[in-house]
Amino acid sequence: MARVPAQERRADLVQAAIKVATREGLAATTTRRIAQELGISVGIVHYCFRSKEELLHEVIRVIAEAQVVAARSAITPGGDLADSVRNAFLGFWRLVETTPEAQLLTYELTSWALRNAETEPLAREQRASQLAGIQAILAEISAATGVEWKVPAEQLARMTLAVTDGVTLGWLVDRDTAAAVQILEAFAGQLVELVS
After folding, report:
1. Could you tell me the residue ranges of all domains in the chain?
2. Closest to 84 in 3D by CA, of 75, 92, 94, 72
3. How does DSSP assign the chain, residue by residue?
4. Model confidence over 28-64: pLDDT tens digits?
5. Class (C level, CATH) for 1-49
6. What is the number of other CB atoms lying within 10 angstroms of the CB of residue 174?
């Protein structure tokens, strides 16, 4: 069997963990099950990640990064503020619709992490990662359109995360895409009003 570089193996393990967790649930996502998914030994999993918690931390980072990339890639360079904000939300939304199981996993990971003092920091890190990503997108929109936000970036990020979390969770329950997009577009319009 060909030797796989550690960084590539880590990425494979993260994707395998996401597949197992989205298909079978977080409780079934053991290092043994992840190893089976890739047809490797459990020892390789522990070589790449010290613990299941460390692996799940990387899962959180990868999912949060995908959300930021989806929003960021939808921003049209040189577009106006309203289009940029709206496109960022719609880019994020396209990812939600195409990866509902991964989005559900973010809520499962948060709940799981909050139930144990040892894993609780993962929930805080997940939220911090999401907030940092939103702040980066807001800064990018500001730079691209030449506007300044009236409200501090941290506050805008918290507002945005509250809305996107709520809309995503609601959609996972009712799958009412039209209502979800309508809410995101309305909130995007409100954000546009928060510039100097």
Report:
1. 1-49, 52-192
2. 75
3. -PPPPHHHHHHHHHHHHHHHHHHH-GGG--HHHHHHHHT--HHHHHHH-SSHHHHHHHHHHHHHHHHHHHHHHTSPTT--HHHHHHHHHHHHHHHHHH-HHHHHHHHHHHHHHHTSTTTHHHHHHHHHHHHHHHHHHHHHHHHHHT--BSS-HHHHHHHHHHHHHHHHHHHHHH--HHHHHHHHHHHHHHHHTTB-
4. 999 999 999 999 999 999 999 999 889 998 998 899 8
5. mainly alpha
6. 9
Fold classification of 52-192 is Tetracycline Repressor; domain 2 (1.10.357)
Are residues 160 and 134 in contact, defined by beta-carbon separation less than 8 angstroms? Answer: yes
- pTM (predicted TM-score): 0.88
Task: Describe the chain by its helix, strand, coil percentages, rounded to 5.
Answer: 80, 0, 20
For the chain, strand residue ranges (E) read none
Task: Find out whether 18 and 63 touch, Cβ atoms under 8 Å.
Answer: yes
Instruction: Using CB atoms within 10 Å of the CB of residue 155, give its burial: 0 to 12 exposed, 13 to 18 middle, 19+ buried.
Output: exposed
